[in-house]
Amino acid sequence: MPQWLHTFGDQYLMWNEGPLIWISDVLILLTGFGIVFVLTYFKKWGWLWREWLTTVDHKKIGIMYLIASLLMMFRGGVDALLLRTQLAVPNNHFLDAEHYDQIFTTHGTIMILFMAMPFIFALFNIAVPLQIGARDVAFPYLNAISFWLFFFGALLFNISFVFGGSPDAGWVSYPPLAGPEFDKGPGENFYLLALQISGIGSIGTGINFLATILKMRAPGMTLMRMPLFTWSVVATSLVIIFAFPALTVALALLLLDRIVGTHFFTMTHGGDPMMYINLFWIWGHPEVYIVIMPAFGVFSEVVATFSRKRVFGYTSMVTSLLLISVISFFVWAHHFFTMGAGADVNTFFAVASMAVAIPTGVKIFNWLFTMFRGRIRLELPMLWTIAFVPCFAIGGATGVMLAAAPADYQYHNSYFLIAHFHQVLIGGVVFGMLAGMYYWWPKMFGFKLDDRLGRCAFWFFNIGFYVCFMPQYALGFMGMQRRMYVYPANMGWNTLNLVSTIGAYLMGIGFLFIVAQILYSIRYGERDVTGDIWDGRTLEWSLPSPVPHYNFAVIPTITSRDAWWEMKQTGQTQALRPSADEIAPIHMPKNSGRPFILSACFFVAGFGFVFEWFWLAALGLLGVVICLILRAFEYDDEYHIPPHEVVETESALGRL
Amino acid sequence: MALAEKHVTSGGSARASSIEYRDPHQAVRILGFWLFLSTDMLLFACLFATYLVVRTHTDGGPTPHEIFDVPGFTIETFLLLTSSFTGGLATLAMRNGHKKQLMVWLIVTILLGLGFVGLEIQEFMADVAEGATMQRSAFLSAFFTLVGTHGSHVSLGIGWMFITLLQVARRGITEVTARKVFIVNLYWHFLDVVWVFIFTVVYLSGVVM
User: Fold this and answer.
1) How close A263 comes to chain B (CA, Å)?
2) Number of domains chain A contains
3) CB contact under 8 A, A550 and B139
4) CATH fold of B18-208
5) Which of A154, A356, A494, B145 has the largest CB neighbor count within 10 A?
């Protein structure tokens, strides 16, 4: 083998790292060839470009977010299983320390940024315009840019595994560990640039959905008549808008430290590593509320629908969402009570953190009161909602324990903390997102996900969850610290660690059942012919499944909360069925390939910065600028769907 | 824009009379831009916070007092504040339907902006020549990053305003071009406000303290 190929293989392809990399290389190549082959064989390249890569339709963008987040859940889940396998028995050397560091870093980063975030955005896109009676979001072109920036950010992050090396300083990437002195190589650069690129997309989504909800509601849909999921998106978007810039700055400054040689967070020349930690958590704590609040929104929809009651305490639900979004900005320092900021600072943040439990408790009681004396149907979305309540209550209670600053000195960075945040993030966010996926799946695809396989997934995942994480609370009390890759046999941790690993594998089986359920249901799932398969309450259920691309042939006029339910009760559902002469031309945005190309240019620029190949970075940024200029001169980006086309579609659906 | 005309509400009635708000599709973009500005404001807020934390961390290198050049930053301030005023005159001309005036004021604004950026580059180069580089100390890292981020925003704004100018030249004052002129001016005024903070927090207090 020529020398340069050898060097390239070792330095960039990491062939000296062992079988984990080789297997991934082979799998990626096979998958890549498989995709190319299938697309070519079935002549689907044009279809892919026209229908998906260039789409600005919020429903399709939502589906792409959903697919991406399920794939990332797989990647993050495999990471988790590798970690738990390593910890199953003492003195294990399944992974070495370096690989363990990389895998817990990618596990955390992927689960938060590339699994939870796209999952909430999937539900935003799928549900919000339909719930408020709009034909698309306020800025469809920006929406496509947001998705593709997320996509290429995630791609950049995942490529690090087989090209250049994964980041290894934890999902928080604290300097000085992540700084230029102690973490050489491209790994951390991958982290910084991938998050930066997808973060810009997230800011775009926050702006887009806030503007959509404020300005594009159907006539009569006052703020206090909006469905609670839409309200949760308002609260989430506000938090995104106010929190993400802090992440942008934290990442940018650390990147400057690493590739320009500045001294923001270094140990010498006056740098202050704690500044990074503050900036990171000024974003980071609101971020966990960004991912949990949409789950709260899903639960509110699901509980009301499957109890056949209007939600209990609507106003207090809205108020508590907004309170949570405000308080979320005053709790960040509880991530580092041990920094030594002093008793007064810690007291403030401790009290603020505990205060979060109040609006959250209000919501929990409201959901319970909604179920009380309701006619509960235990469909899959409701099952996950019911599982959420005790799980999140325990997670919240241990959260209050952690918020008690003096006690936190004991729990800090122990497995108690790990168990706590997995309980709120899995029990809250993942359960909520799965409930939302099951709930809106028929709306997206026109068929229901199979119930039997879904129940298997539910029980494996739930039992697995408690088996996995309850022992970790105890391990935390017994002194086991997070991020340790190996432990001696005489600590008394052996049994609990083994049990925890078994639980992780049970959750893995649960995930496989979800995959099986989706594949099975594509062929055999119950078809949704009415568009209202759950006997729903909000506007999206007044539309056929899947929804025609213009959503509403005629924009409805809203007279009450739970508009569709009221119409069904009073026998006025015909009001939403247009008559042929009512249908006017519909104004829609044109598809555009530029969001995809623009984001690909960001990817090229990011890749250039990762390896400090500045010519490549400059080339990528030039592409970005060209795309922006072309957009500025684009005036013809909308078209009208002629009425006869709408009439045809609607009559084919039997709605005229 | 994918929305029915009738169910988009425009701004208040006073605004509804001005051309940039008349079409609801354009009005919603202005709202979106305000939301974007709030994110940009927070970005600067974080950079200011970082600067305030490390501004005394000079590591034995140049101090604010030593490198800030009073006449230089005073002229920069004068140029930028004036450009904000001429930008306002451009908006006024646009609302009155005077295309030529609008273009003249945009050009004046661009020239003033170019003068500002030119002076800032000169200031930075002089600093670097004296050994006050970004890599010297935490204070200098934060100084160059904060002021440089503002400067690159202004540079971007100049390019953007120029592109908007070309569109006005080609298409005249329509509801769409009016919205574009209005938004680029919003951006410009925002950068002016940020500069006022840089002037006081960085330069003035740096010279005084």
Assistant:
1) 5
2) 2
3) no
4) Four Helix Bundle (Hemerythrin (Met), subunit A) (1.20.120)
5) A154
